[in-house]
Design brief:
It is built from 8 helices and no strands. By secondary structure, it is mainly α. It is globular, with a radius of gyration of 22 Å. The protein has one domain. 77% of the residues lie in helices and 0% in strands. Keywords: ATP synthesis, Cell membrane, CF(0), Hydrogen ion transport, Ion transport, Membrane, Transmembrane, Transmembrane helix, Transport. Belongs to the ATPase A chain family. It is a multi-pass membrane protein.
Length: 239
Amino acid sequence: MLFGGTPFELNRIILIRILATLVLVTLFWLAARRARLVPGRSQNVAEMSLDFVRVNIAEEIIGKDTARRFVPLLTTIFFAVLAANITGVVPGLNIASSSLIGFPLVMAIIAFVAFIVVGIKAHGAVGYLRTTLFPSGVPWPVYIILTPIELISTFILRPATLTIRLLVNMVAGHLLLVLCFGATHFLFFEAAGALKAVGAVTLAAGFAFTLFEIFIAALQAYIFTLLTAVYISISQESH
C-alpha cells in the first residue's frame, strides 16, 4: 500500500497488525479511563481478563512473592498474541497477523531477552551461565554431553519453538478456513448437479473450524505466555 520494496513497506498484514493494536489499546483505555471502586460491566471484564493472566499464569508459575513485577510483561504478551491471532476470524480481515513469522519472532525475542535478563539479575552473568550450562550435582564427565544440550535447549530451541509453534498453528488454521470456504464457493457456484449439495457440508465445516480457530487463538496466546513465565521462573531459580 505504501513504501513498496523498502523495509518500511505497509502491506495488508502490517495494516491488520496496526489495527489490532489500536483496537486492543482502545478497549483497555475505555475500560480504565473511568475506573471505579465498584466496577461497571466493561471495567469488570477488563479486570477479570487481567486477573486471569496475573493469577493463572504469573502467580501460578512464578509464585506470588515475585510474580508482581512480571505481570505487565506477561499481560502485554498474552493480549498482544491474542489480538494478533483473533484477526484470522474477523470478517474483512481474514488472516491472523501472527501467521507471518515477523510477529511470532519478535514476541519470542522479547520472551528470550526477558528470561535472560532475569537470570543475569538473579545470579550474575557468570553465575547464570554456570547454573544453566553446568547444573550442580552432576558427575563431571556428564557435562561433556549435558552442557551442549543445555546450551542448544536454552539459547536456541526456546525462542525457536516459541516462534514456530505460534506461527505454524495460525498458518494451519488459516489454510483450513481457506480450503473450507474456497471449496464452498466452488461447489455452490461452479460445481454441477448433485455436487452443489456438498457445499453445505464444507460450509458447515468452515463454521466449525472458525469456532475451533477462536479456541486455538486463545490457547496459543495462553501457551506462549505460560512458557514465557516458565522460562522466567527457571532463570530465577538454581537448578
